[in-house]
Specification:
Two copies of one chain form a homodimer. In chain A, 40% of the residues lie in helices and 25% in strands. The first copy, chain A, is of the alpha/beta class. In chain A, the strands form four sheets. Chain A has a seven-stranded parallel beta sheet with strand order 6-5-4-9-12-14-15, sandwiched between helices. Chain A has a three-stranded antiparallel beta sheet with strand order 1-3-2. The first copy, chain A, has a three-stranded antiparallel beta sheet with strand order 10-11-13. The longest helix of chain A is centred in the first third of the chain and has 15 residues, at 3-17. Strand 7 (143-146) of chain A pairs antiparallel with strand 6 of chain B. Chain A binds a DNA duplex through residues 3, 22-23, 31-35, 37-38, 53-54.
Chain lengths: 253, 253
DNA sequence: TTATTATGTTACCTGCCGAAAGAAGAAACC
DNA sequence: GGTTTCTTCTTTCGGCAGGTAACATAATAA
C-alpha cells in the first residue's frame, strides 16, 4: 500500500468516526504506530486532522465542542459579511444549492427574506434553519448522516442531483490551491460536490482565508470552473491577483 | 475513549444541561472523579467552563439557546416514559425506523446509549439529535422539507424505503380510531407511513392519549397491523381492552 | 550507483490516570 | 456562633501508555 493511499485511508476512517485511535489504525493498516504518527503529523500540517493524545479527531474548523454561545459568535462578522455578499447574487424565485458547512449556514440565514426560493442542501442544520424562518421550499438530500457534522452523503443524494438543475450553487471547500484547485479529503463529499457543480448554471465558492494553500486528496474542481469567489481579507494579494487573472469574479468582504 | 474525546463529551453535557456534577460525569464516562477535575481545570483554562464545587457550569452562565425551535411542549413526561418503554424493545445492532414526530424524538433521546444501531428517519430533528450524541448510523430520508415541521416527504423517501428492511418501526399517529384504525390528514405522509410498515418486521405504535377517538382523511393501517402499542394512562380502559382483544401487546406507561 | 524517501526500532521523555492523604468548603448540629 | 462531620478539592506520587528523536534499514527515484 502506497503512503498516499494509506493517508487517504486514515482520512476515510476519520471521516467515518470523526476520531481515530493510533493503535487501532496501525493494526488495521498493518504498519507501526510510528508510521501512523508521522502520517497524522502530516495531515495536521495540512489542516485536515487534529492530533490528540492517542489518536486524532476530525478537523472541521471546530475540532472541539464549543458552547453554543461562543459557537455563534466565532467569526460571526466574517460569515455574516460573506452571507450578505452571497445574497446579492440571488434573485427572487431562484433555485439554488447550498453545500454543507458553517459559511453556507451563514448564507442560509442571510437569504431568509428572499421570496420564493427553492433550496437544495445536504446539511440538516441549513434545512432546519430555513424551514423555521423562511418561506423557501427546502429539499434535503437523503442518505447516511455523517457523524458529528449533521450532513448527508450517499448515492441517494447523487441520484437526486442527477434529476435537477439549479440557477446557482454555493460551494464550500476545505482546501484550495492555485495549482490543484479545490480538493477534499473525502471521496464521497468530493463526488457530491462535483455533482453539485455539474447541475448548476453558476458556481460561487465561499470560503474563509484559512482554506487557502491547502491540498487534500480528491480533486473536486479546477479554479477555472468557479464563477465567483467570496472570501475574507485574510488572503494575500498575490493569490487574489492570480485568481482574478483566471477570470473569476473575486469578492473580498 | 480518547482524552480529547472525553473532554468533548463533557462540553456536550455542559451545553445540554448548562451544569454538570463531577461524580455523575465520572460514572458516565467510567473514569475517576480526579480525571474529570483535571479535564475541567483544562476547560476552565480555555474559558469554556466555569468550575464550581462538585461540578461546573457554562462559562457565561446563560442557559443554552435551543438551536432549533421545538414544539415539544405538550405531555413531555408522558413522552419520556414512552421513550423509555420503547427502548426496552430495542436490542444492540438493531435496524429501526423512527417515524417523524415529537414522541419518536423522545424515543431517539432514550436510545442514545444503545450500541450499534442503524436508524432511518424522515425527521431532521431526530437525525441531528442522534448524530450529536449517539454512535448510531443514521440515515435521513431526503425530499421536500415540510414547512415548520422539519420532516421530509417525497418520492425519494419512498424509493429509499423500497430498498431496505428493518427489524422494528416506531410509528407515530395523529388519529386513532377503533373502527378506522390509524388515519392521517396528509396523503403523502400516509403513503410514507404505509411504506414504513411494509418494510418492518415489527410495528410499534407510540402515541399519547390525545390521539385516540380521532379520524383523519387517509387510511394508514388497521389496528391489527400493529404489534405493540405504547401509550399513556389517559386512554380509557374499555378502549384498551378492545385493543388488547385484537392481540396487540398494549403497554401503558 | 547515489540520493531520497519511507519505515521500523530503540531509548528516553512526557502526559495521563488513579490512589492516598491532607486542606478547604459546605452543611448540620448543638 | 462555633464545632463537628461530611464532602469535595488539591497535591503528590508511581505506574503506564503514548509521544519524540535519533539511528538503522529498506524501498524508490534519479
Amino acid at each position: 500500500m502506497l503512503p498516499a493511499e494509506r493517508r487517504n485511508h486514515i482520512l476515510k476512517m476519520l471521516n467515518k468516526n470523526s476520531k481515530i485511535e493510533i493503535e487501532v489504525v496501525a493494526v488495521e493498516l498493518n504498519v507501526s504506530p510510528m508510521t501512523i504518527r508521522r502520517d497524522l503529523a502530516l495531515l495536521e500540517e495540512q489542516g485536515l486532522a487534529y492530533r490528540t493524545h492517542g489518536g486524532a479527531v476530525l478537523y472541521n474548523g471546530l475540532h472541539r465542542e464549543v458552547p453554543y454561545k461562543s459557537k455563534e459568535t466565532t467569526n460571526i462578522d466574517e460569515k455574516e459579511r460573506i452571507g450578505r455578499e452571497a445574497r446579492k447574487l440571488i434573485k427572487e424565485g431562484y433555485t439554488l444549492i447550498l453545500d454543507a458547512g458553517t459559511t453556507t449556514l451563514a448564507i442560509a440565514r442571510a437569504i431568509k427574506e428572499v421570496k420564493n426560493l427553492t433550496v437544495i442542501t445536504n446539511d440538516l442544520k441549513i434545512a432546519l434553519e430555513l424551514n423555521d424562518d423562511s418561506d423557501a421550499n427546502v429539499y434535503c438530500l437523503g442518505g447516511l448522516v455523517q457523524k458529528g457534522l449533521g450532513i448527508t452523503l450517499g448515492s441517494e443524494a447523487q441520484d437526486f442531483l442527477s434529476n435537477i438543475r439549479v440557477d446557482i450553487c454555493f460551494l464550500a471547500a476545505p482546501a484550495i490551491d492555485l495549482d490543484w484547485g479545490i480538493t477534499n479529503p473525502s471521496m464521497e463529499k468530493a463526488n457530491l460536490k462535483k455533482k453539485m457543480i455539474k447541475v448548476a448554471d453558476q458556481i460561487i465558492l465561499v470560503t474563509d482565508h484559512t482554506k487557502f494553500y491547502k491540498k487534500a486528496f480528491v480533486h473536486v474542481a479546477d479554479l477555472k470552473d468557479i464563477d465567483v469567489l467570496i472570501t475574507d481579507s485574510g488572503v494575500d494579494s498575490k493569490t487574489i491577483e492570480a485568481i482574478r487573472s483566471l477570470g473569476i469574479d473575486t469578492r473580498i468582504v
